Input
Amino acid sequence: MNKSLRLLLCVLVPAAAALLSGCERPPIDTVQTGFRGTGMEQIYNPRTLLKQASLNQAPVAPEAASADGPKAKDIYKNVQVLGDLSVAQFSRHMASITQWVAPDAGCAYCHNVENFAEDAKYTKVVARRMIQMTQRVNQDWKPHVAETGVTCYTCHRGNNIPANVWFAPKDRKYANNSVMGDLAGQNLASKSVGLTSLPFDPFTPYLKDAAPIRVNGDSAMVLRGDGVNRSSTKQAEHTYGLMVHMSESLGVNCTYCHNTRDFQSWEQSRPQRVTAWYGIRMARDLNNDYMTPLTDTFPAHRLGPKGDVAKVNCTTCHQGAYKPLYGAAMAKDYPELQSVAKP
Output
């Protein structure tokens, strides 16, 4: 080997080693969820899971309070929700909400501390409605949340505003570089769809409106009466956008719900697909019955670019975990959140 070649190798080999070391595959765990040969496997990076676990720790519930004594509604003014709790139970719940939603601001985040009864702060009005929404989820959406249920902490995690909410995106027909032409509601690397070029608003059609999600057709041209194809590739891309969102929200891949032999077949899918089906409808129900009606309650700076209120999607609760808080059953420690209070 001549001197020039040896010199070249001395330079290239260390450089190649340094380059490849940066591309070394991290340790991977594979969990089989279906029959062998179907490709139904979940793939996890233990280091990612370790980080996720630290972000999905449920707080320790305070000791249960006594139900004895006068009712909160008989002692305090303007108690419209949770008034049938004893004063001790009511105080426990308020302290828990403070921990879940406003650990820094404390009671003053929702209340005028000079007059707790007044509704001057919009945050108090919203909090009251959010308690009712939580009760609704635990009572009427057990096909999705089961007995695990939810509390305010499920979404808020100690933040005034949940870290993961969505607004209708602003109208954007062209990219900054107009060479791309009409964006057609997609063709941008959008976080909402995993930095893909899929339609960047998969939420309005499915988690607010009730657009058909399943777009598989049984013929080459499927047209509605008005001539619009609802099983087109374009329509399918919206569905894929929602599926990418769900995958990232739960930290799973497609086979968590679907069988790779036949993605559309319910008979060959995992039970989790039914749970997801209910989850889509639950999010739609909460957005339309609870969030959207609060639009005028929120100040302008809390609204989106189109003046709409923040709404929920899968990430709002799941935050990268296949079950929110990895299945920590917080709700059982708060029976007052298990059902909608009767007026």
Observations:
- The chain has a mean pLDDT of 86.
- The domain at 56-163+323-343 is CATH 1.10.468.10 (Photosynthetic Reaction Center, subunit C; domain 2).
- The first strand starts at residue 29 and ends at 32.
- The chain has two domains: 56-163+323-343, 164-318.
